[in-house]
Amino acid sequence: MTLVSREPFGTTADGQAAEQITLENARGMRVSMLTYGGIVRSLVVPDANGAGTDVILGFDSLADYERDGMYVGALIGRYANRIAGASFAIDGTLYRLPHNDGKNQLHGGPCGFNRRMWRPAIVNGAAGTSLELTRRSAAGEEGFPGAVDVRVTYSLSDDDELIIAYRAECDAPTHVNLTSHMYFNLGGHDAGDVLDHELTLSASRFTPIDTALIPTGELREVAGTPFDFTAGRRTGDARPADDEQLRLGGGYDHNFVIDAGSANSFSARVRDPRSGRWLEVRTTEPGVQLYLGQGLNTEGKNECHYGAHAGLALETQHFPDSPNHPAFPTTLLRPGELFSSRTAYRFGKDEHVA
């Protein structure tokens, strides 16, 4: 894995200069990240003939990312997903957060990690070159208690794996839940919708939502429902009219509970039948949010229009609204503890597909 380039990528509206940093592995897979928002801007996966296809959605300019409301490619924090009522209590103290999703907070608030500048460092190790992004989230940022020091490392393996490792430490009790919000289209970022993509999830349960897209607290079996991806099937097989939960989410916008024994091994697999390209996801996280991009409607890279379902997100995470659900895996981080998480995205292509 080598550092291919490090170049300017514009200036934010408040005058901060952003960089784009590109890594490449020995097989020609390339990934480009921005210091603004920890954004993964492009991910080029080669085929057997060496031709590369960019398989994630993105934008051409920094201004486009500043305007974006769909978290395209972004690093999400301090808390990924929703917090009900934009509030939670720790040790008897109530904390109120700015809301940006009705009465709830979504993806860390109006100015979450996706809208912050990160400090880059190029790290050379035994496995090659990695990009390390760090920042201190100050106490009170977006309403969260405690200062948090965050480090996110992006690496490419020579097995065509993008690995994202997250670490965080705090100086006062707080909640932390980090993820990457890449939108994948394995046919290519400009290939249309992903409704023909075949999805397998190692998840026999999911967390149903209410009308505000907040988990009810139930862990519901997927068997016999449109949420059963355990044997693999097309993402477009079910319609919102088919199921109350799909109607509430306008489609798939739900957290799936990764089965015990699947953590850090197989968690999800996506395959595009047209190109034969596939993606396998492994994570240490207990959940993965499937969002099928039904809210997309924007102009993307190379003057490509991203309409509904132009990409799907697989956000590895702790469960939504965990601070208000004691029965969910905890997201509470205390001084002296380490938040550590790792997700690997491995790409390949069927040999028989031209």
Main attributes of the structure:
Beta-galactosidase, Chain A, domain 5
CATH topology: Beta-galactosidase, Chain A, domain 5
CA radius of gyration is 19 Å
Structural class: mainly beta
Shape: globular
Largest sheet entry: 9 strands, antiparallel
Overall pLDDT score: 95
The tally of domains stands at: 1
Text of the CATH class? Mainly Beta
Tally the helices: what do you get? 2
CATH architecture title: Distorted Sandwich
Helix content: under 10%
Give the strand tally: 30
Q: Strand fraction band?
A: 35-45%
Task: Give the strand order, joined by hyphens, for the main sheet.
Answer: 11-12-13-14-30-24-23-18-21
Low-confidence stretches: none
